[in-house]
Every structure is written in C-alpha cells, then in structure tokens.
Amino acid sequence: MERLERELRAELGRLPGAAAMTELVGVWPEAVGELVARNAWPARLARDGTLHVAASSSTWAFELAQLAPTILARLCETAGTAAPKSVRFAPGPVPEPASSARLDAAPNPRSPSPEERDLAAKLTSGITDEGLRALVARAAAASLARAAGDRVI
Questions:
Q1: Is 47 among the domain residues?
Q2: 32 near 74, Cβ under 8 Å?
Q3: Residue 31 maps to which CATH number?
Q4: Torsion sign across C-alpha atoms 139, 145, 151, 153
Q5: Which of 55, 74, 105, 146 has the smallest C-beta neighbourhood within 10 Å, fewest atoms?
Q6: Residue 71 — pLDDT band, cuts 50, 70, 90?
Q7: What is the mean pLDDT of residues 67-79?
Q8: How many domains does the chain have?
C-alpha cells in the first residue's frame, strides 16, 4: 500500500498543480473543521491559483463564500506554500464521509439455516470430488445466509 501511495504521489507530481492540490486536500479538514469538510470539498486548483470548492448545496456555497477570507487565511496557515491565492465556492459533488468502521472488519455473519445447508448440498451435488464438494457447499450455504441476512432489515 505504501508503494502504491509513493508511486501515485510521484505521478501526480508530474502534473502542474497536482502537488499543491494534494496538499490542500490533505489539510482541508483541519483548516475548515469537520462540519464544513462534510459539506464542502476542494474540487480543483485553477492556473491563476484559485481553489474551486464544491459545496453540498447552494446555501453552503453562499455561506462559505461569505467566509472566504477566513478560510483562505486558515489554508495559508495550514498549507504553507501550497495555499491558494483565492477561494471560490459553487454547488457540486462532495465525497461521502469516511465510515468510522474499519474496512477490514467483517460484520458478524449469520449462520446458515438447515434449509440453506440443504439447498447448498443440492446445488453442489454434481461435484465429484468429496472434499471440494464439501468446501463449495459450505461456501454456498454461507453465501445464501448472507444474502438472506441482507434482505432482512
């Protein structure tokens, strides 16, 4: 993962303004606070040094435009030389907030019911290798249980 990050940063470094944009995206939540970061996100850095920020609504864009001098000052403090010359806000797509749950943490799976195990056994009955058939049947039963669990809410 670190190697991929290193390679991506190297490639982005070849594009004009990409390094500054990467820095701005990195410091954005710290500079503007969590609430603003959930409702506005840096979209692009123009050639003239203007940071264009997408806001979740026209109301957010208007309110943040009123705070542009304050936001620009905070960006200058946190981003240093990568700070933009000015900031503009407009409605646009804002990324979803990152889930607080870890991505590698799997939810507790539901155990397959006897009916799901029977169906899995029927579906895998054509597999001649006994060990393989048992593994595939177990996986199929787990998949059937997970699918049933996804439907029950």
A1: yes
A2: yes
A3: 3.30.300
A4: negative
A5: 105
A6: very high
A7: 95
A8: 2
Query: CB 32: neighbour CB atoms within 10 A?
Result: 23
Report the predicted TM-score, pTM, of the whole model to 2 decimal places.
Answer: 0.57
- Judge contact between 90 and 55, C-beta under 8 A: yes
Q: Average the pLDDT over each of 8-22, 38-52, 68-82, 100-114 and give the range with the smallest value.
A: 100-114
- The pLDDT score that the predictor gives to residue 102 is 46
Residues 80 and 118 in one domain: no
- Is the separation of the CB atoms in 111 and 75 below 8 Å? no
130 and 77 within one domain: no
Residue 129 lies in a domain: yes
Residue 16 has which token pair? 């004009």
Report the amino acid identity of residue 49. Answer: G
Which residue range(s) make up the domain with 135? 114-151
Q: Looking at the structure, tell me whether residues 85 and 10 fall in a common domain.
A: yes
